[in-house]
Specification:
elongated; mainly alpha; 3-stranded antiparallel β-sheet; two-stranded antiparallel ribbon; about 350 residues; about 10% strand
Length: about 350
Amino acid sequence: MESDQEETLEVQEAISLSLADGRDPEEEEIMLAMAVSIACASEEEEKRRVLDNDANDEMEQLDFAVAMSLSEMSELDDEPQLTESEALFECQCCSDDRCLLAEVFMCEGSCMFCKECIKRGTEVAIGEGKTVIDCFAACSKVIGDDVLRIVLPGQVFEQLQQHRQMEEVEAAGLEDLERCPACSFAIIMTETEFTVLICGNPTCRKETCRLCKEDSHLPLSCAEVERDSVTQARTHLENAATEAMVRECVKCNTRFLQEDGCNKMTCQCGATSCYICRKPVADYSHFYGQGGQPEPGKCPLYTDNVKLHRNEVKEAVQAAKRQMNPGDLNGFTSNNSDNDFDSEDDDSDDGNNADYEG
């Protein structure tokens, strides 16, 4: 570019000299045209050079972009790709989207669930007495046995099968059908002289009375067992009534019962206690006097012990009844009220009363 400019300058100088020398005007025009042509050629050359430089820059940028793209692709190729066994899916029950596709379980409508949802949902359904496990996504299809056999523990699946079989047997309306109350075993027994059902299930083997449906009680009859049950229930209530009234020394555990007197009790062993709250006391500061106003944390010095014992017995008997099997109370008539125990055992530990002073 510098050489072209020098040539242009030389032409211009030559033209100037020719004008100064008085040369022919035609020659001057020719010389001027040559100078213009050279100048234009120089400009075109400069433009081509600029375009070539721009093109080179674009090529360099394109090469750089291609190199970066190839580098990124190489890095992606180096990253570990999930295999088919590592692919994930979303459980349609718990919505966990990190479940392995290799561990998917489906209902007959192709709804996808994780193993834990199938197991937990099926066990709940069995507990509710269901024998057909509906799809947990409510697609109107069911969970097939091929899935349940894999997911459920063997014992649970066997239990489900037994429930189904029992439903089929009961739906058949068979006569003389006897069923074990502890499992789903059932058998037809036409012989009335055999009153005991021995379960044929190897994991059960329970023996049940066919008449009262309770545990086998041979050689006793059902009536004898019922009477014995009533006796045991009454004994249990009587013991509860006694324990409600009788006190024990806080030191030597001597049992005693007080009919009247002050409520500060002194045992022969020297221990002192309160007859009302049954706690050890040091002196009379624990009590408030007869006819006095009740005070928080203190007990009355004198009370009507007959009324006190009656209330204690009533509460104890009611509590004992709530803990008993309702069937054990069937033998009690309406006359067997809590009042039956009000005056019982009033003298049960009277011999120990001499050991105490009130």
